[in-house]
Amino acid sequence: MIPSQLLKGTLEGCVLAVIRQAPAYGYEIAQKLAAYGFGQIAEGTIYPLLLRLERSGAVRPELRPSALGPSRKYYALTEGGERALEEFIASYSELGRAVDRLLADTKKEEQP
Amino acid sequence: MIPSQLLKGTLEGCVLAVIRQAPAYGYEIAQKLAAYGFGQIAEGTIYPLLLRLERSGAVRPELRPSALGPSRKYYALTEGGERALEEFIASYSELGRAVDRLLADTKKEEQP
DNA sequence: CTGACTACATTGTATCACAAAGTAGCCCCC
DNA sequence: GGGGGCTACTTTGTGATACAATGTAGTCAG
Question: Is the CB of A41 under 7 A from strand D?
């Protein structure tokens, strides 16, 4: 299990990445994230996040009726969303490199 | 610059890692993190974090006078802190693998 | 017509990074 | 000897965000 604090900030970029693969709706995004190994993301997390992305102009919603169940709200990435995704990837790898350097030094001290 | 939301949760584990290398005090930890590429961590971040770790039993404080400036509060890792660090490393790499899988799939769609 | 599954929305809560302000010791330099 | 600068810790308040809980509503199987 990944603690929720570690997901903070990461989740937003990952949702953008999923949407970039193909326009998707909330319920579907949560399932895809679970399949990628993020664990079961709560609905109370995914829908407010999508509304924030919509309000910030990173995604554009489009309602489509569903054959089974209620209508789905598909989200597509905008140009602003593309930029936000690129920035997320850059920040995340910068952080990853810093953590890797730190942990490499931390392990070395074990076996002198 | 790494956005502060991405640091959430990560910072706690990284502070444990720094302390594991050698007992350290707040001001020193912030400087080491900056050297590793985390950016300048605010004092309003580092000291409350250390107090939380102290209260949770992950670190043990020890006051030592300083030759230049006020006394320093050195923190050493406890057994509980070692376990917390191991759990952080496991969670962080689990998250990293999930993000890597997702981003790998996301890029592939670009060049069919 | 009851239950199960899909699908979206809203409200409230806990956690955490950070800014800001305060306190205090030591040093250098004019 | 007093002001400026650096070290060092503490406290208070704020904003962002993951999540639990709850509610609404559509479809379909039995």
Answer: yes
